[in-house]
Design goal:
Largest sheet: 4 strands, parallel
Shape: globular
Distance between the termini: 21 Å
Order of helices and strands: HHHHEHEHEHEHHHEEHHEHEHHH
Number of helices: 16
Strand order of the largest sheet: 2-1-3-4
Number of domains: 3
Radius of gyration: 26 Å
Strand content: 5-15%
């Protein structure tokens, strides 16, 4: 889900508003409790006095940024109660660290460390309790639109195949599938079939349908245009299946794309000169800042690799040709995490639990430390912080032949992290490449500063919870 909140926006908005209020309540309770705490310990150890407006605003803003970074506002978050509570705890730990750092520089803007600590603990309790109650309180869940799917063939079946779990349908409820002439035979639950002779307008009125998804396999002279127009006049939204999948899953169904959709749909706009210059300034600035803070980690990683097998001739850095912007090749730089002879038999897909990975390599891959030298690629302008992950030429040639529109991912600069890394688990095969391409094309279509910031912040979640792909 993207930050525009078009999908499930009602539920996310409610969460943001209520939890912002709970953060303010937590700090207020902290202030109110200080006179009571003063009776239990020396008065000098607590901070009597009201908190300023700036303290309330800063505490709430940093708290919300931290919960956002932990993925707590992602409608497709697949976590049980324990996982959600863990993320809330980690979010407030992150908030405490950020606020303590700000306090050291601008103490007038943030509460004192003791207030921050107590307010953070109270926030964990309040937000955690609220999250436990959300499923049980009517109106606080994500708003579910009632949809009718026009079609029951190959295109319509993707909803049944790819959106089976409850979490995939948190934003909508399928009233039924109405078969259309020309539909290919596909397996859709027979209980959801609607008689094709049912008057469309009567059905959407009786079932309170909010949206009609046009998913028939054959459209030429088959669509009930007059009925669809009448439904639209009654306030029912009409959406193409490709746009529906894009909105609900954050990916583009490459296997269902037809050229006219690519041409007429919004997005897929090239970056202008101003955007390119701003990208360069932002990427270069962030790379310099990260290198300033990360050089001890880079030095320690290099030393560990050298101690393991570098003394026997193994290199510390690993250079590999990748395909970048415009299909141009460049050499990506990483800390070596595999044996020196890892590709003695030719190029291979990396895989989970790869036996070619060294002991040091296993650790640095787990925490993404092997990626740090790519900051030099960013400084050279070959990569950005956000974008599709660059692939090897050998695999690009194979994938471009088999996957439609694969070359479109090279219309933007590759990145250290990307939309596919946030949304798709670890995988390295042609099937995984197809799934990642769906997310990469979504990024290419919707690329913006807001989406880049969203991805960059959410990367914190990927690193902490070992999610994503390489």
């Amino acid at each position: 889900m993207t930050p525009d909140l078009k999908s499930g926006g009602h539920g996310v908005f409610v969460l943001v508003v209520v939890e912002s209020f709970l953060l303010l309540v937590a700090l207020h309770l902290c202030v109110l409790s200080e006179p009571w705490l003063a009776t239990l310990q020396s008065e000098n150890s607590v901070n009597l006095g009201a908190a300023s407006s700036a303290e309330f605003i800063t505490f709430a803003a940093v708290g919300m940024l931290s919960t956002f970074a932990m993925g707590l506002y992602n409608p497709r978050l697949r976590e049980h109660t324990r996982g959600v509570l863990r993320r809330i705890g980690l979010a407030m730990i992150l908030a405490f660290a950020l606020l303590a750092a700000i306090n050291a520089v601008l103490p007038e803007l943030v509460p004192s460390p003791s207030r921050i600590l107590l307010a953070s603990l109270l926030s964990i309790g309040l937000i955690g309790l609220f999250r436990l109650l959300v499923p049980k309180i009517p109106g606080l869940g994500v708003f579910r639109r009632r949809i009718l799917v026009l079609g029951a063939g190959e295109r319509a079946s993707i909803i049944e195949k790819r959106m089976r779990r409850k979490v995939d349908r948190r934003n909508f409820f399928v009233c039924g599938y109405m078969p259309m002439p020309g539909d290919k035979a596909e397996q859709i639950s027979s209980t959801l079939y609607i008689d094709a002779n049912t008057p469309l307008v009567d059905y959407i009125r009786e079932q309170s349908v909010d949206e009609i998804i046009v998913a028939c396999d054959e459209r030429r002279q088959q669509l009930p245009v007059r009925e669809l127009f009448e439904c639209k006049l009654r306030g029912v939204e009409i959406t193409d299946i490709l746009s529906f999948i894009e909105r609900e899953t954050g990916q583009i169904a490459v296997n269902l794309i037809y050229p006219s959709w690519m041409i007429y749909s919004n997005g897929f706009k090239p970056a202008d000169n101003l955007r390119s210059q701003l990208d360069w300034i932002l990427n270069t600035g962030l790379a310099i800042i990260l290198m300033f803070f990360c050089w001890p980690l880079m030095l320690g990683t290099a030393l560990a690799i050298w101690l393991e097998d570098g003394r026997r001739g193994g290199s510390i850095l690993y250079r590999q040709e990748r395909i970048g912007l415009g299909g141009n090749p460049f050499n990506i730089i990483k800390f070596r995490s595999m044996r020196s002879d890892a590709e003695s038999n030719g190029a291979q897909w990396a895989k989970k639990n790869d036996d070619r990975v060294t002991r040091v390599g296993e650790v640095i891959r787990k925490y993404r430390l092997d990626e740090l030298p790519q900051l030099f690629n960013v400084l050279k302008g070959e990569m950005g912080f956000v974008g599709p992950r660059p692939e090897r030429p050998e695999f690009v040639d194979q994938l471009a032949e088999k996957l439609p529109y694969y070359s479109e991912r090279h219309t933007v600069k590759p990145g250290l992290t990307g939309w596919a890394q946030l949304c798709y688990p670890y995988g390295a095969s042609e099937e995984d490449a197809l799934e990642k391409l769906k997310y990469d094309l979504y990024y290419v279509k919707h690329r913006s500063f807001l989406l880049d910031i969203f991805i960059f912040i959410q990367t914190v979640e990927v690193v902490l919870f070992k999610k994503g792909a390489r």
